[in-house]
Amino acid sequence: MTKHELKTQLIIDTAFKVWGENSFYNTSLSSLAEALGMTKPAIYRYFENKDALMKAMKDDFILKYKALLAKSNSSNNKTLDELIIDYTEIPVKFFAENYNYYRFFVLILLNMNQDIELLFDEMKGDNENFLSPALLQKYGFSEIESLSISGFILSVGGFLLNQHLFTKKTYTKKEINQMLKTIRYVCRYGLSGHSENYKQTNYIEVESISEIYKKDVLPFNKIFTAVAEVIANKGIWNTTVEAIAEHLDMSKSSLYFYFDNKEQMIQDVVGSERDRLNELILERIVKFESYEEQLYCIFYVMSSYFLLKPSIFTIMNWLRYQFLNKSIKPVDHKLEKFSEYINLLTNTSSFNPIGFPAELIAEGLSFILIHGLWECIEKNSSQEKLKLRIRKIHQLLLYGLKGNSK
Fold first, then answer.
1. What is the pLDDT of residue 322?
2. Which CATH architecture has domain 3-189?
């Protein structure tokens, strides 16, 4: 490499480190120049502006990711277990060991106004995507099973990687090894572990009893709708009080009459919807005895509610990506019903034989469900396909790939 190329690479590497350690909250060229020990104008000799640097960072990240995939390009004659190991050993391990690349991928690339499918295609390049739905179909899975399995494994890995997303922490070697073991275990056996007791859930009956109707959904209001629409267009980080006020065609000061800041606005909107979801879950979950049916009841109530009110689903999806969707803490001595139920359920060895923390399970189940629903909506899936997807997520979470083949 020439001296100019070496300096260019140093600037890119330093940008990943400096900006990544602050979760890309502050991507000023001034902070980068200070870390490099050079002036801000000097950076312009290598990059025309910050957008050009961001583009170079994206190219650098994708180049390294493609090289990683190329090392395991061949999937011929591999068992399904070997493919799962490939998935954990390659992208998840790569992101865990190079955590600022993961922060860049989630907080910058996924937040840009772009087609996510095209982004994934660009990352894959000419390499075979070893966990693509098309490849899984070669192993005898149906289309809906392949989509569900691929999305399930992706979301399990993504959820665990997200744990340090907004901290200055990175993963230790011990934590990475434990993460890989956890992903493999959950993907193979689900939360029920090695148990051979695969109970069949009567999905049609549970869906019939758990159905949500328009009358059950909280009324719409113009501020809520504006918040959701701005978030859908800009993402939570780029959503400002000014943007919401402009969308409402009202002054910023008028909006502050209702809310102190953007964070309160989002929390109030999400809080009221969660309270309503809790009520609906509580009304329906008591009608079932087994935890398998109760868990599916929760899934179906949540998904039905989101479909009837896409605006709240848009917000919840952004919260999932940006990991602001923390499990609910005690409020007025009352836990959110979903977290309360999972907390009770995790104390039963039949559901949680290896003792995952209740809070982690509650967050993870919500994350994985929303990921699956969002994929269906992005692909304009039919209602029937969406139901099948929820059922498969439920089966995979309980019994993993081993149970799915039963």
1. 53
2. Orthogonal Bundle (1.10)
